[in-house]
Design a protein that fits this description.
The protein is α+β, with helices and mostly antiparallel strands. The protein has helices at residues 2-50, 55-79, 81-85, 104-107, 117-133, 158-175, 201-207, 221-248; strands at residues 89-94, 97-103, 139-144, 184-188, 209-214. It has eight helices and five strands. Helix 2 (55-79) runs antiparallel to helix 5. The radius of gyration is 33 Å and the shape is globular.
């Protein structure tokens, strides 16, 4: 009897092993099939994406847009080489586009918004490059000042001065250089978007500037104006709040 029980136990164990192996093999087959299906379908999705109509054209257009800005930068470097060497003009490629930063000294007299003679020469060179290498692109003109209060002029504030300076640059680009009005925007930030400290003479000189931004084609004039106007208004609100708190003290 003990032997029979042992034999029976072994038989049951053997059956269990076979059953377990059978279930395991079935699970393994299912996993392998799922893996093959995933690889196959993901490959199809990838091929479908690569062959999506218009995708290659879009890539070519983006490449062309980048090349246009790069060509414009090279042309400006060549035609404004003296001003760049004298650190009166800075060229930068940023997420905003091609930024041409001009020191106020090259454009205006202190506290004034009337363009200097040399400023007109510089703006004409910039306009020529725009027409040759970036025709149809939206262009933003931004005026900036330092934080020294205006005392001996007719301007109510630095804000007003910066807006008028930017507007006068836009008018010159339209009236004298033939840039289409519908691609141009003018905005003033006053003292509220400094790029350097206002505690030093050198820092204040850097903050007094006008920036001309040749925008990437994917950024529309409307979206640019909406974003910049919001930033400008927020900066002014923060500054007014700060001044109000200081007055209370």
């Amino acid at each position: 009897m003990p032997e029979g029980r042992i034999s029976l136990t072994l038989k049951h164990s053997d059956d269990n092993i076979k059953k377990t192996m059978g279930v395991g093999m079935k699970k393994l087959c299912i996993v392998v099939l799922i893996g093959l299906f995933a690889i196959t379908t993901s490959g199809c999705a990838l091929n479908f994406y690569k062959g999506k109509p218009g995708q290659e054209k879009k890539i070519e257009e983006l490449t062309t847009h980048v090349e246009e800005l790069e060509e414009a930068r090279r042309m400006l470097e060549d035609r404004l080489s003296q001003e760049i060497a004298d650190k009166q003009i800075l060229l930068e490629r940023t997420s905003r586009g091609l930024v041409i930063t001009m020191a106020n000294d090259i454009l205006f007299d202190s506290g004034k918004a009337k363009l200097k003679s040399h400023a007109k020469t510089v703006l004409t060179k910039i306009a020529d490059v725009v027409k040759e290498a970036a025709a149809g692109r939206s262009i933003g003109v931004e005026g900036h000042t330092d934080n020294i209060p205006i005392k001996h002029s007719n301007w109510k504030s630095n804000w007003e001065l910066s807006v008028t300076r930017a507007t006068n640059v836009v008018h010159y680009l339209i009236d004298e250089c033939g840039i289409a009005p519908n691609v141009l925007s003018a905005i003033g930030y006053g003292e509220y978007r400094p790029i350097d400290t206002n505690e030093t003479k050198a820092g204040r000189a850097k903050n007094r500037r006008v920036e001309i931004i040749i925008l990437p084609k994917e950024i529309s004039k409307k979206s640019y104006e909406e974003v910049q106007s919001k930033i400008s208004e927020e900066a002014r609100t923060q500054e007014e709040s700060k001044l109000g708190k200081e007055a209370v003290k």
